[in-house]
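Our preliminary data section would be incomplete without showing what the modeling component actually yields. Below, a chain of 140 amino acids is followed by its predicted structure, encoded as tokens that our downstream tools consume directly.
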Amino acid sequence: MEASQNGNSIDFSDAEFAHYEADEAVKSPPEGRDACQAVKPSRSPFECDDDYPRVVVTLDARTRVIECSDGIQWAIQKHYPKAKRRWQSIHYFRSKAGLLFYAKSDAPELLALPDWFPEHSPSDTSHVSAPTTVAADPVM
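Predicted structure:
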């Protein structure tokens, strides 16, 4: 199969063309919707966005606490409306005590959190890989 680009001929194999067709089908918005509506999810997966779904509590107009996207800690974020990344994480926590100290808030949503981030407690080392020893190269 051939396609013309600026007067030059480009040869596509059938497999490449099928892949191209599949990509175009995914990119096409459903009938009656524009491209942004077709691609943009209802809740953003990015921590810096206003509609990030894992917000624990909004403390005030410029401060919120989130669960990070990796699911390993909480973060305090500040809002910078004119910045490209509107919400920026400034502190990270695994313990509720540290979070409460820096959040300077007794919001019920924070007080209801467990003492440690639920993924792993400090005594749980199952997520930590065993140290490895690397043999030194023999000196010649």
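The radius of gyration is 25 Å. Residues 29 and 38 are 5 Å apart (CA to CA). Preliminary results of this kind motivate Aim 1 of the renewal.
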